[in-house]
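FAQ: What does the model actually see?

It sees only this:
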Amino acid sequence: MASALSGLRVLDLTGLGPSSLVSMTMGDMGAEVIKLDMPPGGGHRGVGDGLDYFPAEAEEAEKMTAYVAINRNKKSIAVNLRTEAGQRIFHKLAAASDVVIESFRPGVMDRMNVGYKALSGTNPRIIYCAVSGYGQTGPYKSFPGHDANYAGLGGVLGLTGDRSDGPPVMALNVVADLAVAYLNATVGVLLAISARERTGKGQLVDISMADGVVGLLAGIPGATEYFYSGVLPRRGETLTSGNSPFYTAYQTQDGKYVSICPIEPRFWHNMCRALGREDLIPHEFAPSPKKEEMLDDLKKIFLTKTQDEWFDLLTKADVPVGKVLDVDEVFRDPQVVHRQMVVEVPHPRFGKIKQIGVSIKLSDTAGEIRSLAVPLGRHTEEVLSDLGYSKAEIHALRQENVVA
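And it is asked to produce this:
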């Protein structure tokens, strides 16, 4: 049975950045994904520049590459887009493709004659997704940045933490990179594909990570209410700030943590009864100093049992509780295992390679991991041959460092 995106071809110029998850997801769902990188010596950019990321020994580097989930289900070619010959190759690819995804700074692709304006002339049906920090327009469009920069501008970083007089808490690269560069871009591309079914035309999908973070404020308690009430939400004062008795992580007897989130009164009642502290039921939303007093009491109570004991007790009491797991524990968790969120994929040389599973579950057109990530340029000759290049022409392009 065909997968959901079978028949689509995607050109991936995302490097190792978070938007590479967009093309990974499309590949998981059946699209043919061709990942383009610069040949060695052709110049490169992206996360990991200048770092000793892969081992020097070729076989070990290939083995490590196989574990890079973001590059699975992708063909790898190396094309120097700074050359006219490389640009011609890309236009030929674009003429036979559906989607381009890139994460360069605005203007870089245009300067190489492979931006949306040029490619839409070659293929009016092309869907061109440009993922950048601040978008393709505006006074900040050329500024460099990373997740925390966009999360800060968008107001989310300033609300993350347990008190307003302390520094905000960096939420890894989850906010702008994963909640926006991945999810917004994926949704944007799929919306454009849907629109093309009606109009027959492709379009530019302009994904700004900063825009996306601002958009997240619509779902943050206290943020959208600001327009109505004029009350400014502060770090440590929202319902989900992390220092509320009903929304925080408590340390347990064995030095681990459980996340406790009984926001709704019925769940708070359940927890108080399970803890033998019915006296706390009327005080769920009590202000300081009662809030701090309850926090101190609950911290002491949660130190009396292990993480597993609290999880068992509180799930049976119908309380929103979760184990705070380390990564190795995540992949042993029975729910994660049951949902096939860790899988083993056979490799012709290295045996079984563990991968994070496909998180989107479709009942009729399920995604799958058909192939693992491969070294740079593994499919260059195959792809160019399909475009009509002869072996002699490909050899000449290699000699000129146009491809690798």
